[in-house]
Q: What sequence folds into this?
């Protein structure tokens, strides 16, 4: 029986969450997989894992290197409409490298690499932590959504952190024109924080855009394949909707390899086959019931979980999500699912 809880969400917010959840469940074309996703949507993680195990969709490989290699080889066996979902950025990067190695061996990705500096969001920083200078690092790149006339930073501008004063809670950043600005980060809300990281790209690589770009007509999480890399470094990529775009990656730096993505970056994506990396060594906040639901529900036909420890995975995925908003999401969707006859409430 459903337990109806008070929700602080507005009706429009709840309707949006319910629509998203129902879309996830309608996505599944395989009845066996759909049964597992319905259980996950109603918080019955243990039952869902039992179902997935009975279907042969859970594989235990204790050794990290062997597990990553197995996922990469499985991806290469059928790369079209396949997505890898991993809980953290470190393992996501490791998986992307492993997949590229396998694809280069088959000739699907060109052997020649070009180095580019891309921006990877610091997902370890919460919104509250962005208000405190001590959580920033030297060379972090900050994007200002709104900007500030008082300190001379325009909306959508970027700046690099050059000095940190935790005692005074002040950051000093270098703006694009070379000027310095010092401010209290509590005064500027709506910022995103990135690290500049070197990535190697080749013709044939799958990429994911990690921020919206109106000038290119791409949305956050859009996927594409590199068709040409010009001698001057400009990229010609074909989006999954078959549209071809050209851009300078030194000017549009929100992109990364698109074979493996985090569960956060996978939201809104659909793939026929999803390979889930259930590494139980990651932080509990990254491997929980929300991760289980989001990652498995990306698949329409097949999903497989590769884990270091099946028993521990069950305990970790059954854990509650630490953020209250995600918990409210779970309760709201579970109750609505019950009312619609799509599963039992919590």
A:
């Amino acid at each position: 029986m459903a337990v109806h809880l008070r929700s602080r969400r507005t009706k429009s917010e709840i309707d949006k969450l319910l629509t998203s959840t129902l879309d996830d469940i309608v996505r599944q074309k395989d009845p066996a997989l759909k049964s597992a996703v319905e259980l996950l949507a109603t918080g019955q993680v243990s039952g869902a894992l039992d179902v997935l195990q009975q279907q042969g969709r859970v594989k235990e490989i204790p050794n990290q290197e062997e597990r990553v290699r197995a996922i990469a080889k499985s991806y290469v066996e059928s790369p079209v409409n396949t997505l890898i979902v991993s809980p953290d950025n470190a393992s996501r990067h490791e998986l992307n490298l492993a997949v590229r190695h396998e694809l280069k061996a088959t000739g699907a990705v060109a052997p020649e690499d070009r180095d580019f500096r891309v921006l990877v969001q610091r997902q370890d920083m919460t919104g509250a932590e962005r208000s405190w200078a001590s959580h920033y690092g030297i060379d972090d790149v900050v994007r200002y959504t709104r900007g500030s006339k008082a300190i001379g930073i325009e909306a959508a501008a970027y700046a690099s952190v050059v000095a940190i004063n935790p005692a005074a809670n002040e950051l000093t950043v270098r703006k694009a024109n070379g000027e310095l600005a010092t401010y209290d980060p509590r005064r500027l809300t709506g910022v995103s924080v990135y690290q500049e990281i070197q990535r190697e790209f080749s013709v044939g690589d799958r990429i994911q855009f990690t921020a919206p770009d109106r000038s290119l007509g791409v949305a956050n999480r859009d996927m594409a394949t590199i068709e040409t890399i010009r001698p001057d470094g400009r990229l010609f990529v074909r989006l999954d909707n078959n549209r071809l775009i050209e851009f300078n990656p030194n000017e549009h730096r929100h992109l990364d390899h698109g074979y493996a993505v985090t569960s956060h970056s996978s939201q809104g994506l659909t793939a026929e086959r999803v390979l889930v990396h259930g590494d139980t060594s990651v932080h509990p906040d990254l491997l929980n019931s929300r991760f289980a639901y989001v990652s498995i529900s990306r698949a329409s036909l097949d999903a497989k979980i590769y884990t270091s420890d099946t028993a521990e995975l069950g305990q970790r995925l059954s854990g509650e999500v630490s953020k209250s908003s995600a918990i409210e999401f779970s309760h709201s969707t579970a109750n609505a699912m019950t009312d619609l006859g799509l599963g039992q409430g919590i």
The radius of gyration is 21 Å. The chain has nine helices and 16 strands. Residues 129-195 form a domain with the SH3 type barrels. fold (CATH 2.30.30). The longest helix spans residues 89-106.
